[in-house]
Amino acid sequence: MQEPWTVKRLLEWSDDYLKEKGAEAPRSDIEIMLSEILGTSRMGVYLNFDKILTPDELKIFKEYLLRRREGVPVQYIIGKAWFYGRPFSVQPGCFIPRFATENLVDIVLKKFAGNKEATQLLEIGGGSGAVSVTLALENTGFTIDTVEKEEKACDMIRANIASYEVSRQVSLLCSDFFSLTPQKKYDAIVCNPPYIVFGDPRLDPQVRDYEPSEALYGGEDGLDFYRRLRGSLEIWGKGSWIFLEIGYNQAEEVARLFAPAEVTFSRDLEGFDRIAFFRWE
Q: What is the value of pTM for the model shown?
């Protein structure tokens, strides 16, 4: 008689299987896929070790596993990514929000903590909408205009705005930021732009192969977006705070590009300067 596929057996077998196929540290992805199928948290996966999966659950898991074997990011497989403790809908063609970008949110929230007046924010390149929606949920005094030019990403932003019921705070403009003219004054401009250099050895292959290139690459030196933004700040950012995510080795050049502004940097858990912020006078 065949041994039943319990959660524990499936977790261990799948871990070995993906490692044999060349995956590095696949355990967390398997936990995420199982938690999605079982309708529980990742901790719940371990609390249900003895549960026997139904035929339908096994069928779905097999489909997930085969896609993960091919390198498809787990977020695209289950259709969601976690950011700031909340799930956000994502799909191919939409940039997947990262844990590192939570630092960008933290810094914006700290800068405007205690502000008693309504605060107008602009996000350039909304992706999934995770940053704008999170800022709205964390500070009800924020009103945020999100600009995103890719239609698939716009679909995800609309879905996430609706899911978290923040349409009174977050507005989407599906357009190229650099083709627009400002219709209002913003207290802050927030952006996680494309800043990766082609061939960067630190870039995860699944990011390189599956996520939208227009959200990743910033030209030969990764700084193209920052140069274009610098040229737009006189009409968009006068008197505004600017918050930017940057590449792990770009702090010196970013500081030079935005001189004479006094650029402050925040480091990530690896010790790299990854968030730049300054007031543009």
A: 0.94
